[in-house]
Amino acid sequence: MLPLGRVLRSRALQQLQLRCQSSKALGDALPNSCDVLIVGGGGMGASSAFWLTSKTRQQGKKLNVLVVERDHAYTKASTVLSVGGVRQQFSLAENIQMGLYGHDFIVNSQMHLGDVDLCFQPHGYLVMATSKGAEILTQNSKLQNELGARNKLLGPEALRKQFPWLSTDQIELGCYGIEKEGWFDPWALLMGFKKQARSFGAQFANGEVIGFEWDGAGALSGAVVDAGDGIQRTVKFDTCVLAAGAHSGQLASLANIGSSHAKEALLRVPLPVEPRKRYVYVFSTQGENCPGLATPLTIDPDGTYFRRDGLGGNFLCGRSPCDEEEPNCETLDVDHGYFDTDIWPTLANRVPCFEA
Asked: Which portions of this protein are annotated as coiled-coil regions (predicted)?
């Protein structure tokens, strides 16, 4: 194995940082008011702006939509730091249906977003299970196919035949997505949403929402925005959309959501969203019999995953830690040791050529 720093601070991230720096042009000026304020301009915020302006435009109406994003270069945005996967291999019907819609949108993105290439790689997912999880994997596959997904179940022998690089030690079953799954360029999708929403009249301003204001009846009526120039401005709105990702729970508390003094019972319940940090590592290998260009995003029973990244023998990989090992979220610092002790042993066992 030829390490590339083993973390996202690799050539891939350097390229991402260059693209982020190119997006640092000043945003739109903060208006005094808007119809809809969207707090957060990442994937969900930009998508919300696109759909709101697109639908009202189709109806011959105009909606004044403002998106406020504090990380205007998206250097810490989960959207662009993700591995960009789209799949239907879930156990919940709603997630499967959303995955199907997500795939359809991505492959037809130019119908919605114009001239944008999302670089979709339709190589599927391969989810594997031991004897303990084989029955659940079978049930999930049945539901997924009933809802329109296309995947097939493979036993150890069939897995080795289709993926000669794979060690099936302790593997009872694998579920391979043969259609409608893969990965794409999340930066391109974000920029596509943002560009199209802007063309439909949405505004994107740089700033951080640091508080809210209420009218005489106790309803939210405005947001206090710090634009980074030392001046706090209030933007009045009719409707506010919280799209701040992992920080939405904290933002909701600023709006008194979760307060025991809220008039409505529903608003006394805190928004159960808080940050979690996940490491994505990069490694490179030129070993013989290594996973080829059509390799699916492969998930081991212990949760370790990997997929190819480009054509140069590079791979992305990672794994969610157990509850007792949740890392500190205050910074984006990467734990190099977690790769060596928790991830690499699984990768080397599952794909022996990675050791070459």
From this structure: none
